[in-house]
Write a structure and sequence with these properties.
about 400 residues, mainly beta, Immunoglobulin-like, L,D-transpeptidase catalytic domain-like, 3 domains, five-stranded antiparallel β-sheet, five-stranded mixed β-sheet, 3 helices, elongated
Length: about 400
């Protein structure tokens, strides 16, 4: 038997990092197999496996999928991991020539590629992605593991502008325990920042468990917004169906729980006409802030008041609260004479404060209001019809999600 030594040559592919090749072994044919008396026959050795990555210069561009290409043959397996051990999942094309990640490469990261072909050869390389010029971040409401009322939407407020709204929305997913129907809708928050909320078609059902997955790492916000460099998630539960129903005509608040009236409270709401009137419509209780300083100058009402106020619960960003107002006791149940808030006695405010939860329904009806609070001024999307709300989605047709 004869034996020939060979040196494996490494195939070079333009624009790639170092290409690894599998070790090669020379093969010899068996004697007498051909019947032509030629002796041992040697098989042609396999070429080394070589792969390339979609580099721009020396880096893969952040905000784009990673694409691994084999020079010859077909890919059988590709694994791409980052410096923290996280795996970038992807798919091999039907022709076996390329592998493409399902998600974009994250900015400022280093990745390792390990690949095998259908001949059990292996190759590997490493690459980096360019750093983000600007990073976008998200503020998420409600908080993780919280229990909220039936009017609380999922609400995401972005630090920087989001021009690529449709692309961002594609990476947001809401999953519920009872297949709640809902849709994302974009707006400008009262702060002036871009915001997207997920609102159910109707108020939530009590007991619903909600999970929100935001696979934003590597997504480009668009001009002026920068990249997201991490994923986000939250989960929360829908509590008791509690509704605070304010009637401006009767000057009373009716509190219901699961459809049954549990308390009726005499109130004094905003003075009809002008800027001191209350907002009307369907809203959600935003926060329970307790004892706070209220200054009329902060809401454009001059120097009318500057006082500490107890049992304060916020309804709008523009300064509408439900709170104790003992100085206005003579008007409870008789006249709307406040500067826009819904006031009541200390005892009633304390009782309401103890039972209320963030996300409870607040509905203000009757005459003398200054109209429905604008979209973005708190959680006021409930004043839109379902069709109007779906139209706020950045995806075609206002795509809904059922989880």
């Amino acid at each position: 038997m004869s034996r020939t030594r060979r040196t494996a040559r490494h195939a070079a592919v333009a624009g790639t990092a170092l290409l690894a090749a599998a070790a090669l072994t020379a093969c010899s044919g068996g004697s007498g197999g051909s019947g032509d008396g030629s002796g041992d026959a040697q098989m042609k050795p396999k070429a080394p496996m070589a792969i390339s990555v979609n580099l721009t210069g020396q880096e893969v561009k952040a905000g784009e999928p990673v694409k691994v290409t084999i020079a010859e043959g077909k890919l059988a397996e590709v694994k791409v991991t980052d410096g923290k051990g996280g795996e970038l999942v992807g798919q091999i094309a039907q022709d076996g020539k390329t592998w493409t990640s399902e998600r974009n490469a994250s900015p400022g990261a280093e990745y390792k590629v390990e690949a095998k072909n259908t001949d059990s050869q292996s190759a590997g390389t490493r690459f980096k992605t360019g750093a983000a010029d600007k990073v976008n971040k998200v503020s998420i409401f409600p908080g993780k593991n919280s229990t909220v009322g039936v009017a609380q939407p999922v609400s995401l407020v972005f630090d920087n502008p989001v021009k690529n709204k449709a692309e961002v929305e594609k990476h947001l997913k809401v999953t519920t325990s009872n297949n709640t129907e809902g849709s994302w809708g974009w707006m400008t928050d009262y702060s002036g920042k871009d915001r997207v909320d997920w609102r159910p078609r109707e108020y939530w059902k009590s007991g619903t468990d909600v999970k929100v997955q935001m696979d934003l790492n590597g997504v480009d916000s668009g001009q002026g917004g920068g990249y997201f460099v991490r994923d986000y998630n939250t989960e929360f539960r829908i509590g008791k169906d509690r509704r605070l129903l304010v009637d401006l005509d009767t000057k009373k608040m009716t509190v219901t729980e699961d459809g049954a009236t549990v308390k009726t409270i005499p109130v004094s709401a905003g003075t009809p006409g002008g800027q001191k009137a209350s907002w009307s419509g369907k809203m959600a209780l935003m926060s329970k802030e307790g004892t706070i300083n209220m200054n009329s100058e902060t809401v454009g009402l001059g120097d009318a008041y500057d006082k500490m106020v107890d049992y304060s619960m916020r309804v709008t960003w523009s300064g509408m609260y439900i709170h104790a107002a003992p100085w206005n006791a003579g008007n409870f149940g008789r006249a709307n004479a406040s500067s826009g808030c819904v006031g009541m006695s200390d005892a009633n405010a304390a009782a309401l404060f103890s039972m209320a939860q963030i996300g409870d329904v607040v509905e203000v009806s009757g005459s003398g209001s200054k109209g429905d609070a604008k979209l973005g001024n708190g959680y006021t999307e409930w004043n839109l019809s379902w069709e109007q709300w779906k139209a706020k989605s950045a995806l075609a047709g206002g795509a809904t999600q059922n989880g």
